[in-house]
What does this fold into?
Amino acid sequence: MQKNSFKQTMKRVPPVAYMLVIIIVIFSFMDSHYLSFSNFRNVLIQSTPLMILAFGQTCIVLTQGTDLSLGAQVSFVTVFIVFLAQRGIILEAAMLIAVCCTMLIGAVNGLIVAKGNIPPFIATYGMQNIVNSISLLLTAGSSVYFSSFTYRIVTETTILFIPLMVWVAVAVFVIVWVVLRKTKFGTNIYGLGGNREALALAGISPVKCLIKTYAFAGMIAGIAGIITLCRVESGQPIVANGWEFQAVAATLLGGTSLREGKGGVTGTIFGVLLIQIIKNGLNVVGVQSIYQNAIIGSIVLAAIIIDAVVRIRAKE
Amino acid sequence: MAETILKARHITKLFPGMKALDDVDFDLQEGEVHILVGENGAGKSTLAKVILGAYKAEEGEVTFDNEVVKFNGTKEALAKGIVAVYQEFTLVPHISVAQNIFLNREYRTKLGLIDHKRMEREAQRLMESLNCEYIDVKSHVKTLSVAEQQMVEIAKALSFKPRVMVFDEPTATLSEREVDSLFAQIHRLKKEGIGIVYVSHRMQEFPLIGDRITILRDGVKIKTVDIDACSNEELVNMMVGRDVSQVYVRTQNEHTGTALRTQNLCDYKGKVKNVSISVRRGEIVGIAGLVGAGRTETAELLYGIEPVKSGDVFINEKNVLPKCPQNAVKLGIGLVSEDRKLQGLALDESIALNTVAVSLKKVFPNFFISNKKINEIALDYKKRLRIATTSVNKACKYLSGGNQQKVVLAKWLSFNPDILIFDEPTRGIDVAAKMEIYGLMDRLASEGKAIIMISSELPEVIGMSDRIYIMHEGEIVDEIRRGSEEFNSESIGARMMLGTGGTEDAEK
Amino acid sequence: MKAKRLFGEIKSSKVFYSLVGLIVLIIISAVIAPNFRTVDNLITIFRQASILLVLSAGLTAVLLTGGMDLSVGATAGFVGCICARMMKEGVPILAAFAIGILIGMIVGIVNGFLAGILPSFIATYGTNWVLGGLAIIVMQGAVIYDLPKNFTQIGVGHTGPVSNLIIIAVIVVVVIYILLQRTTYGRQVYAYGSNPVAAKYSAVPMKRIMVSSFMMCSMCAGLAGMLITARLNAADAAMGDSYGLQTVAAVVIGGTSMLGGEGGVVGTVIGSLILTIIVNVMNLKGISSFAQGMVVGIVIIAMVLFDTYTKRKQERSAV
It folds into this structure.
C-alpha cells in the first residue's frame, strides 16, 4: 500500500522535474561553484520576466491557443514607457498606460481569434509583427533611454534577501492561480479549452471569454515588460524576441496541454526554471556566447519533444 | 390519473429541403417515462429539441402546466424546469464535478471568489440523492468513467430542480451494468413525479423503464401506445412502416471458399477479445451487437487502423497481418467506415476526387494523373449508383446523406477489393437510398465478393445476412445461420443484450 | 475552349480574389508612385519576388497538408551560411550547392517527424530557433563576403535577357505546380489536408506525405538561402530572418487555407507578387522599412479573416 502510493506520487511528478534535477546535477559537476545560494538567487532574478510572461501564456494555452505576440508586447512596453517618459509623462503613469495598451492588444488578439475563428497562432503571429514594427518605428530601430531611480527600487530593494521584482512575479503567480482556481473567469478558461459547447449551453459566451483571456495575458505581458525595463534600464525594441516561444515551451513542459484545457500555472514555474537554469548554467560553465542560442534551442526543443512523447506513451 | 405537465400540439418543424416534423402531437404526465422511438431521421431528436426550446417549431404550440409557452432558446425552458441530459457530454473535462454541476451558477464567497466548499457540499448532496456518493465531487470529470460522467450530467440536470427531463439516447455509450444503474435512477426520478422523455431506438430497453411509447416515422407521429399493449413486432412494423421482407433483397448465390478468416483476434484496448470469424466469397456475414460491443473495433483491426495484439488473419488461407490501411488495401480489404463525414469523405473536395481517393494509384500507376480520366470514372459511378448531382465536380458537402454514402461506395467500387466491410452503411439515410444500397450489396455478393456487414439495426442485419455473428463486450457469443429457428430479431436481440447463447434467454 | 475552362476554374477559386487584389494593387501603385511604372522597376520587382517565390512555393505544400513551417527563414539563413563557409574553405561550388540542398532535405525530414509529435507550428518555431543558433556558430559571429564569381553570378547574372534568379524561380514553381496538381502524390497531399482522418481511411500513406511535404519546403528554403547569399555576395547569420514572415504571408495571401486542402501554387505566385509590390512601393515612397512588419502583419490577419468569412458565407448560402 505504502509502496503503491509512493509509485503513484512518482507518476504524478511531471517529467520536467526529473529534467530539472538531471540538469542541475550535470552543471554542478561541471562547475563547483554552481550550487550556491547566490547563483540560485541569480537564476531567480534572471528568470523573473520570462516567468511572469509564461504565467500569461499558460492561460492562453489552456484555451487551446498560443499567443505569439507576447514577446513583442514585452519589447513594446519597454520602448513605449521610455517613449512616453521622454515626452514628460511621469514614469509610473507611463507604465500604467503601457499596460493598458498591451491589454488592448490582447483584446484585439482575442477578438480576431474568437470572431474570425482562425488558428490563434497565425492571428498572433501577425500581431507579433505589427507590434514589433511599432516598437521599431518608435525607436528608429535602436535603444532608447530614460534615467530614473525607480528601476533600481524594483531591482535592488530586497525583502527577505530577495529582490522586489521576484516578489512581483510571486504576486502575479498568486493572482493567476486564484483566477484559475477560484473565479468564474478561471473556470471559463478551462471550459474554453475543454468543452466550448458546455460553456455555450451554460449561457456563457465563448467569444467574450476569449477576449478576456487574451487581454489578461496582455496585461501580464505588460507587467513583464515593466520588469524588463527596470532590469535593462532602457527601451529595446527587440529585447524580448523569442520569449513568446520560451513561454510556450515552459508552459508545455509544466504539463499544460495544448489540446484539452488541462494543466495549470504551478507547473509552468518548473518549465521556466528549467529553461533559465540551462541558460544560466551555460554561462557559469563558460560556454561561448555564439554557441548558446543553438544549445539552448536544442535542449528546450528536445525537452518539449521528450515531454510530449512521454505523455503520448502514458496515454497508451 | 396523474397530471399532464407538458402538451405539444400540431408541431411542424421545417429544415431546408425537408419536413422534420409534420403535425406531431405529444404529451407527458407527471411521473411517467414516455419513450420516443423511430428510425434514424424519424424526427425523435428534433421533437425533443423543440420541447427543450433548442429549436423553434414553425407551427403548433407547446403547453406547460396548462399554459402556452414559447421558448427562445434552452435557457427559458430551463427556467421552467425542462432540462436535457445530453447524449454528447456537455462537461468540461479538467474542472471538478462540483464546478461542472454549477457552471455559470457558481456560489461565491463575500470576496467574489468561488465558494468551492459550499458547491462541493451541494454537489455531494445531489450525488447522494442519486445514490452515487462514491463519485468524488472534487475530482476532475476527466478522471471519471463514462457512466459516472453520465451520472454527473443527471446531477447537473437535477440541480435545476426539473419537472421534465429529456434523455437523448442515454445508453448509447454505457455498458450493461451501467445501464442498470441508470435505469434505477430513472425509476427514482419517476417516483418523485418528474416527467421523463426518453429518446431511444433500443427496443430491448423499453419494457424495463417505459410507460408509454410514441412512434415517429419520417417526421409523422404514427401512434402513442401503452408499453404493455404492444409487441415488439408491432413496434418494428410501425417504425419501419412496411413489410420488412420487401425492403431487403437477397439473391441466393453460391458461397465459394473462405476469403477471410480470423483466429483469436485481440486488440490492445481490450475491446476485441478472441474474435474468430470467417467470411466466404459470395457471402454476406452480419455482425450484430450493441454500440460498444467491439464490432467497429474488429473492423478497424482488419483494416489496419488499430494494431493487432494477438491472433491471426488469413486471407485466402494465407496468414497475413494488415499493419496499416495501405497494407489492408493491398490485401484486398475495403472498409466503408462508420462515420462517413469524418472518415469516409473529404467533404470539401469534389465527388470526382473522392471517387478516386483509394484507387488513385491503381488508375494512374505512372505517377501523373489526368483530370479527364478522373471525371470519366466519377461520371461512370454517378450513373451506376444514381448519385443525384448536377456535376461530379461539386463538393461532397452539398450532397444529401444518402448520396454521400453512395460516393463512399463509389470510392470502394472503383478500387474493387475482394473483401468489403460495411460499418453501419445505412445510418442516417432515407429509405430509398437504403434500398439501393441493399441492392448493391446483394449484387456485390453475387459477383463473388466477401462482405461483412456491421449494423445496429437488427431488421437490416437479419434481412441481408447469410450468417450472423453476435458480439457482446468484445467477444463473439453466438453464430446463427439464415434458415435456423433462431434467425429472428427476438432471439438475436436478446443475445446482443445479454451476451449468452442459450435459448431460454430468448424466451423472456 | 481550354482557356475558357481555365478561366472558369480560376474564377471559382479563391485565386480569383487574389488576382483581383493584385490588379487593384498594381493600378494603385502605378498612380501613387510614378517611378513604379518604369521597366527597370518592374524587372526589379520580379527579381525581388523570385527568392520569395522559391520559399513560398515550397511552403505551399506544407500548408496544403494542414501544417505550418515557421522555420523557413532560419533554414534559408543556415544553408546560405554553410554554403558560403564551404566555398570559402575551397569546396567546389557544385558540391557546396548539392550539400546545401541535402541539408535542406534533412531539416525537412526532422521537421516532418517533429510535426508528428507536436503541433507543427510549435515544432518548427523550435527548429527555427535552433537553426538560427547553428547559423551563428557557422559564421563564428562574423560576416562572410567576397564569394566565388561563378557562384554570385547565379544571383546577379543573366541568361539572355532574363535574370538567373527569375529563371530558377520559374523552374521551381513549375516543378512544384506539376507535383501538386498533376500527380498522384499531389492528390494525396490535398486529400491529407482536406480531411486527414478520411485520408487515413482511404489508405493514404500519412507519414510519408507529411514528411515529404516538409522536405520539399525545406529544400526550397535551402535553395533560397543560397540564392540570397549569391545575390548579396555575402552571408550573415540573420539574413533569412525577415523572409520567415513574408513567406507565410505570401502563401496565405495567395489563398491557401490555413486549415489545409485548399489553395495552390498559382495563388502563391500571386501572393508573392502582391507582397513584393507592397514592399517595393513602400521603398519607392521612402517609408521606413520598420513599417513593413506592420503592413505584412495586417495583411496576413486580414487575409485569414477574409478566408474564414468567405467560407462561412459559402456554407450559409449552401444551406
User: Anything to note?
Assistant: Chain A has a mean pLDDT of 88. Residues 47-241 of chain A form one domain. Chain A touches chain C through 45 residues (CB under 8 Å).
